[in-house]
Each structure stands twice: as C-alpha cells, then as structure tokens.
Model the fold of this input.
Amino acid sequence: MLNILTNPNPILRQKSETIKDVNSAEIQALIPEMTETMLEKDGVGLAAPQIGKNIRLIVIRYKDDNIAMINPKIINKSLFKEWDEEGCLSFPHLFGDVKRYKKITVTYLDPSGKEHKLSGEGFLARVIQHEVDHLEGILFVDKARNLHKLEPDND
Done:
C-alpha cells in the first residue's frame, strides 16, 4: 500500500505534469497500487499528488467500478452548483461543505491509452472535480465552509 501525504506537505500544492507515456512501466504499476490504496483507506478517489507524484493521474471508485483517469480534463460544466460535505484522505477526519458543479463532462485516457468522454452528475461529478482539483494543487479546504473534525469510532 502506498503512503498518503497529508497537509501541509508542499507536494499537495504543486500543479501536476501531463503524462506523456501512458504505457510506461511506472504508470502501469502505479494504477493498481493507487486503486488498492484508495480502497484500503476507504476512499472514493485518489490523485497522484496525494502519493507524492505530481502527474495527472487519478483513480476513482464509482458503484462497483474503479476507474483510472490519465490526463483528465473537465470540458463541460453545468450552470448549476450544489453544496455537499466532502472529506479527503490528505486531511484525516476533516470534513467541510464544498460547492461544486452538479454535472460535468470529463475526457481522459484509460490505462491502455484509449480516449474516453464521461458525463457524470451528483456524487460522481463531485468526486471527479475534487480529484482534478488535486492535479491543480487545489485542496478541498480552499473551497470549504463549516470545516469540522470527526474522530473515528473505536468500537
């Protein structure tokens, strides 16, 4: 399992580089490692900067699928936004309300290098926006209101 960087690590604030070689051994090995780490930590998304790599790679969990997005780019956003609570693996136990677009369309490359276009709304749109923000060095606390800590139950 990969180590997740926590705030205030400066890597989390850096803009990530475009991935030029999707088929590199490093990228192909990183995708399953990031997915495993996200699932182990009970996350719904993980961006490469969170594991110390400033490259444009995110993994997300949606329903029963895990989706790796290489060089994701949001190309369309709805007019409407909505507030909802978010957390982040780089801010353990911290939550806050963030206003995000209700619907988005994103283009990305899959691990084989094939281009995809995905439209999402609600929770899926929120997760993608949160993770793409990481690639720009933007953290959810930059946009959040009502930040609060929730300590885990030790039952």
About this structure: Strands lie at 45-47, 57-62, 65-77, 81-88, 91-101, 103-109, 115-121, 145-149.
